[in-house]
Amino acid sequence: MKKVGSEYWIWLQSALGPGANTAAILGFYKEPESVYNALCSRELDMLIPAAVKKRMTQVSPSQSYPVQKRCSDNGWHIITPDCEAYPDSFRILDSMPLVLYVNGDPSLIGKSLAIGFVGTRNASAYGKEVARRLAYAVAAAGMTVVSGCAIGIDSNSHYGALCAKGKTVAYLGTGLDADYPKSNRSLRRAIALHGALVSEYPPGYAVTKANFPIRNRLIAASTLGVVVVEANQKSGALITARYASQYGKDVFAVPGNITNSAFTGGNHLIHDGAKPVFDAMDILEEYAYMYGGALDLKKAQKVPQSLSLHREEATAPPKEQPVPAENSGGAPEEKPKKIPPAHLSVNEKKIWELLQTEDSSDTDYLAAKTGMDIPSLLSALLSMELQGVICKDENNRYRI
Fold first, then answer.
1. Tens of pLDDT along 100-115?
2. How far apart are alpha carbons 184 and 30 in whole angstroms?
3. Which backbone phi and psi does 245 adopt, to 5 degrees?
4. Cβ pair 394, 362 in contact under 8 A
């Protein structure tokens, strides 16, 4: 495919809209500059609706320059179908995305050894733990964990991969600049440092519910298979599983309580032929014969117990040391010291103890005081947020 300016790709995707059938028009014109040059031809009228052609004439490729500058200023990559980093798995889609905006390592979006994790936003404690532990195991073994960076199953899957010091990719239903959801702000930063955030929506694109089902096809297309961890019968995770089935990818599901509607979707998938997942080896064994040299199955069996987080324990108030009944020495009484939750890691305890002496602190201050590098600090802060030990305010400052 001839290399053309990204402004033409951005222009055409803007006119067609994310998720549109791009195969027909590119099958005829091959590249977007030819489409632009054919705006006055009747041939184009046979390929696209009149409303779409009208949008094409109302927007100029030069109007994409602010988008390109914004990406350049932020260090974001613009990946188009004529780029080497563009995933081959997307080229076969009728709805092939014409532009991918990437914050992080663009080489990860073309990795063949990737597995998707999806599930409900309103996940149970059990579902969150399963997502963390499975994602940790497959990432430790060498697979890239792919999800959508939503709260619930998605965020816990990304977190598990990050804890394993593995790679993880998030396909967003928003532009890279959208602070959505706000609670995952630290998670997005960590993913950008240790993986990639990917979107077909340009910076500034409005956040709507319709965006998310559209992006689900990219999670399915970019992976060898999709694991549904927890999903009811109406969950968007089933849309991803349906795409995976259509694309000839593997579909896995974690069995759940048959009396609990939160697991109805996954249980039905198993009934219809999805492979049940009881541990990470149920996933990894499907690919060991083909990618054995790239997978370390022994590492998948060493999942730390610290990933088994109990919400009740994590959110319980810190225990206090007993106060002497009487201070007979005349010296001022010391304020009782709070003991950090026992399940915190060494780095997390450093942060916890520092935050005991401060009303709130930002990442720069915490890094300077704890001596931790930024990736380690973000990983610890993210873990503590997910456990409910700390929270972050609208000014990006952390507090107990």
1. 999 999 999 987 899 9
2. 39
3. -65, -40
4. no
Structure confidence at residue 13 (pLDDT) = 94
As beta bridge partners, residue 79 has: 100
Q: pTM higher than 0.85, yes or no?
A: no
pLDDT in tens, 32-47: 999 998 887 778 888 8
Residue pair 112/86 in contact (Cβ under 8 Å)? The answer is no
Contact criterion met (CB below 8 Å) for 228 and 273: no
Residues 6+ apart with CB under 8 A from 363: 374, 377, 378, 381, 396, 398
Residue 38, both tokens: 């054919």
Q: Could you tell me which residues come within 8 angstroms of residue 123 by beta carbon, excluding any fewer than 6 positions away? A: 131, 152, 153, 156, 229, 230
How far is residue 355's CA from residue 336's CA, in Å, rounded to a whole number?
A: 15
Residue 15 in this model has a pLDDT that exceeds 80: yes
Residue of 294, 237, 284 lying closest to 134 (CA atoms): 284
Cis peptide before 32, with omega less than 30 degrees from 0?
A: no
CB atoms closer than 10 angstroms to residue 329: 8
DSSP string, 93-111: -TT--S-EEEEE-GGGGG-
Contact call for residues 99 and 6 (beta carbons, < 8 A): yes
Tens of pLDDT along 193-242?
Answer: 999 999 999 999 989 999 999 999 999 999 999 999 999 999 999 999 99
Question: Token pair 């006055």 is at which residue?
Answer: 40
Residues of the chain with CATH 3.40.50.450: 111-307
User: Rounded CA gap, 178 and 339, in Å?
Assistant: 37
Distances (CA, A) of 154 to 99, 148, 172, 207, 262: 23, 6, 11, 18, 15
So what's the architecture of 312-321+334-399 in CATH? Answer: Orthogonal Bundle (1.10)
Calculate the CA dihedral of residues 293, 295, 296, 299 and round it to 10 degrees.
170
Domain with CATH 1.10.10.10 in the chain: 312-321+334-399
Tell me which residue of 211, 280, 224, 234 sits closest to 121, measured CA to CA.
234
- Give me the CATH topology for the region 111-307: Rossmann fold (3.40.50)
